[in-house]
Amino acid sequence: MSENKKHQNTKFQEYWLQDPVLKLCTERSESDEEAKCVYCQKTLLAENYMDHVISARHAKRTPEAHKKIIDNLLQKENELKKTVMKTYLDADFNKKQMELQLVNFIVQNHLSFELGDHLSALLAELSKEHLQQFKHITLNSKKISTILSSCLKSALEEKALEDLKENKFGLLLDLGKDHIGCSHLCILARYYKDGEIRQNVLKNVEVKESMTGEKLYDLLEQNILDNELIRKNFIGFSSDNASNFAGDNKGLYGQLKKKYPHVFFQSCMCHNYDLVAEDASATIMEKVIDLIKKISREFAHAINNKKEFEDIQISLQLPIKTPKKWIDSRWLSLGIFLEDFFVQLPAYLKYYEQKDQDTLKGLEKKIEHSLYFLFEDND
User: Which of 110, 307, 308, 377 is the most exposed place for a label (fewest CB within 10 A)?
Assistant: First the structure.
């Protein structure tokens, strides 16, 4: 199995039936490791399904009626973006200025866009005693994303590139896919300035073809290394160990050495730790993992289940929290799920006692003996 496919989804994904575009062409198969394409009348391995959906062959077989539905969905999404921008541009100048500062603060400090929802409420509360303008500021994740891409993106990129003219730096590169299967190359720079290590996103480029080492090199030369001062300060890069990045001859590293013989390559430790964690996770019994997946799916899209679980939390005087979702393609997700799970374990036991005796028995038999070792105190 290739390096890329190791990290792809190997199971049928529930969101395929929820996504407004994917649900038009997707059906379940008898195996949870497969998915059916309605348009092409094909059953494919789940790990290959998204590659198939964005293929030219699939596009040709998309019914005209569905093409219109997809076009309408895209049109509505674009109209929503325009509405957000029009509202933003028509607003009071002081409000816009403050929102720009807040978005810049969120981005510079690598905070979640979801913070915008809570930040707006906080500023509204502060406005009771402070500036009147706070009352009119409204931020959410979509608005932050729109302001960032439309107003701040070029300025932030320009500022980051200016820093590279004055400081020695290394690049971090990674290829990945978004939720609809489009590939992106993310380029970050890391450097030391004013007594601290800084890291900034330089580019997030959509990739529509296979990225060889030569193509990666051309992309860097055109977008990042196109200035003499920047080229002089470039000292190395880091990525996973894929051959198109790390290869000594045809890989990006091999291409860079021809022009920048001093460049140092460092294998990305985050990817290495991920591989270690992936191998370590094999020590957890498969049945336990299946149990965690079942619990995670239970609350993924079911509002009634979440409400019932919240009522149980209240009755047991536990912290009211929405059950965490385990995403098997995300680093640390299993640990985050389990850490919250054990806090809420009494609520889970009561919930399944009322709804699902089989799952309850699984919890009682497996949790204590199979999972608690993950949280043992090493002191």
Answer: 377
